[in-house]
Every structure is written in structure tokens, then in C-alpha cells.
Model the fold of this input.
Amino acid sequence: MSNSINPWTFLAGLGLFLFAISLVEDSLKDLAGRPFKRILKKHTNNSFKSILVGILSTAVLQSSSAVTLILLAFVGSGVIQFSNALGIIIGANLGTTFTGWIVSTFGFKFDIKTFIFPIIALGSLTIVFLKTKKLFHTIGSLLLGFGLLFFGLSLMKESVANFQQTFDPTLLKGGGYLIYALGGFLFTAIIQSSSATMVITLTALHAGLLTLESSAALVVGADLGTTITVVLGAIKGSAAKKRVAAAHFLFNIIVDSIALIFLPLLLTLCLKITGADSPTYTLVLFHSFFNLIGIFIFLPFLKKFANFLEKKIGNDEQVEMFSDIDPIHLDTALEALSIEAKKQLNRSILFNLSNIGQEDTKHTFKRFSTNDYSLNYEKIKDYEAVITSYALKVQSEALSPEQSELLKRILSGVRNCSMAAKSIKDIQHNLDFFKRSSNDHTYNTYQMIIGNFKDINLELKNILNNKDDANLFEKLASNLSLSERGYQSFIQKMHDMIREDVIPLHDIPILFNSNREVFNSSHLLILAIGEICLNSQQAEDLSRLPKGF
Done:
């Protein structure tokens, strides 16, 4: 056998391990589902319970990044208060060390090979033969994930098994702890899995390629590297989400710095517990130990830490929209609401245009990837929430009948903006599918749908840019009619193609649904412009025009 690392075997093992981690994580999310989210929401009313939830949930999901990303969504939507989220964040760091304990125990202390293939066989066959049963399919994916996880670990172990015969680990000692920590940070930031970094480090330590001290420094760096996933998830998010990411990063950098400074001392304490004959256990204990120390350091100061971050990372642009306008000044407040409602109209139109490929570098929304559709939709919802919240404060004041009617129309218009955007978000995967269709009839029908939709949204954008348009009602009514004609033309064309049997059966219901959602989006936007920009009578007249079906 060769006394060198087999790079392809090692990379194959690493690839399998990363894929397995993802499979296990997704399967556990599906199995946990709503109960898991309810636990996060319900048991976070004090710091101690929040920390415990963070530890247990991360140990179950096998990923601190997954838990923290879910937390980003919860904090961003107001489900969990930021101060309570801090406990989950610092608990998640300790929970993620559970993976190391499993791998160190079953991957190095027991001959797992005997069980790998039965687990993979059971998991994969369950997926294939019970794919219509969601629960069994998920359990099969979980089993397959665990099987592939240990199979990947086995490949990595074999690829370096003989390398220690020719490798002198003292060559790496000159690099110092910081070099190893930096390497662990960069590698984890790239692959976005501290668990994978831990397993590679355990493998190298077990094979004698790394000293215990060097391995410990790598693990410290990996602990910080895992924060990058959350930082990336919050860059375009709300201020609340940015606070979560900042808390995660600051907690890790402080705790990891302490771990590096006191690394020899901490390792000595761990060695007294595990003994010199169990280096992999010592490394995993070290990982858990310094994260536990971090919890004890931060626990008394969580509220002060939360206040510090809330002060440094201020309110969102959305919140600042009405920050200087007291609701008791009704005329000013209603004028501000009208201005922001018109901005919301523009956001919804630009969202629609970006989702059908009508790009403009000056636009708020740019079409980069499927993930951006949901992100941009969430921004629209965030703005809706702030506008609605402020409008309800204004509503509690003593309004005249005219002011009350205007406020009602603004609220309805803003709501219709979000519903119009949601219609397009919900069918985005269908539009992407049709755009790549190999059937000419399906593709041409898709072009017909989005062509009419694009023309209407571009016209609505021009209408909004043309302030004080005396013919606004007529233009909106014309676009409403254009939208209805496009809907009916589609119906007629589909009937003709179905009779001629030139369109795949699978595409028929999806095309009908897509056309309806596109029509709904255009119709809602037109009504929203009427509610926000027309007077009360004109808005009512516009809403009473026939809808076409």
C-alpha cells in the first residue's frame, strides 16, 4: 500500500460526509417540523430555558447553523424577542459539539463498517419503495444520511491510514496556534460545516498527522468559521436579523479567543479526565469544555449584551419611515402614509418585473437566484407590517369620516400590494420550469402569459411615475381590460391546443394555474393603485368593473 494520502479517496469521503450531514439535517427538520418551531417559540421566555433549547435543538438537528438560520427568521418576524434569542445562540454552540461525540465514539472506537452497508441499504430501499409515504421517506433519508456519514468517515480514515509512517507532525509545529485556527476558520467558512472540519481534524489526529494542540487550534478556528453562514444569511435582512448574526459572531470570537489563550491549560484539564490514550475524546471534550465556559461567562450579561447590540445596530429603514411623525398630527401622518403606500406599489411592481427577467440596475430588486425571490418578498412584507402598524396608531386618533375612509383605502391598497407579489412568488418555480420547456407550445404559451404581464406592469410603473395624472382612472381601467383580455385569450388558446393534443398533459393544469395567478397579481395591483391614488368614488367605481371570470 502507498504511504501517502489518496486525494480522491479523501475527497470522496469528504464529499459523502458533507452530503450526509445535509441529508441528516434536512430529514431531522422534516421530522421535527412544527413541534420543533413551537418549542423554540414557547420555551424561550428566560435565558436559562433559551440556552437549554439551543443546546438540545442543535444536538437534534446536528447543525448550529441550521438552528441559528431558523432563529434569524423567527427574530425577523417578531416571533422571538432578540434578548431571548441570545440564549439559543450560545446554547447552540455547545449543542453542535454533540456531532463530535457521536463520531469519536462510533467512528473511532467501534468497527462501524459492519453496520454501514445495512444502514445504507435500509435507508435507500425505504426511499425508493416507500417514496409516496412522507414519514417513511424522511426516515429512510435519515438512515441513508447516517450510513453515508460514517461511510465517508471510513473513506477519509483509510485514505490517511498509512500516511503517518512517512509524515513528521513536528513539521507543523512552527506554524503556531493562530495559523491552525486561521486554517480551521477559512476551511469551515468555505464548506460551511464545522462538523466536517471536526471530523477531518479527528481523522488526522487519530492517524497521527496532527498533534493534539494543533487539532485543538483547528477546532477553535472552525467554531468561528461556522458563524459565516449566519452572517451571509443576515446581510440583506432586517436590523433584528443583523443583531442575531452579530451576536453569534461576537460570542464566538470572544469565546474562541479565550480558548486559544488558555489552550494549553484547557487541554491539560481535559487530558486529566480522558487520559493520554484517548486523543479523539480529549479533543471533543475540549470543544465542549470551552463552549460551556463561554455560556457561564455570558449568562449573567445576556440582557446587557442584547441592549448593547440593539443600541449599536439601530432600527431598520422601515421603522424610521415614521419615526419623526407623531400620529396625533393627522394630516401629516396621512400624507406620510400615502407617500409610503405609493413606494410600496413601486416595490411590488419592481418585484414582479424582476421575477420575469425584466432587469434594471436602478431597480430595488435584482434577479440573481431563486432564493432572492423569497428574500425580496419578505422585504415587501416587512414594509407592509411597518406601514400597517403605524396606520393602526393613526386609526386610534379622532379621525373625520374622510380621513377614516382614506386610511381604510391605504391599508387595503398596501395589503393588495403584498398579495399581488405573493401570487407571483408562489408560481415562480412554474415560470422557471416553463422557461426551460422543450415543448414549443408550452414555451410559447408561457411567453404569452408573461408578455401580457410585463406590458401591464411596465405601464403601471409609468403611471405611478406620472404624478397628478388627470386620466388615471381611464388608464387603470384600460389596463384592467388588457389584463382580462390576456386572461381570456389564454383560455381560448389552451382549449385549442388541448383539442389538437399538442401540449403535454402534465403542463395543462400548471399553465392554467399560472395564468390565473398572473391575472390576480395584475388585478390586485391595479386595484391597489386605485385605492391609494384615486379618490374614494373613483376607487369604488374601479373595483366594480367586471373582473372577466
Summary: The two ends are 75 Å apart (CA to CA). Residues 353 and 454 are 7 Å apart (CA to CA).
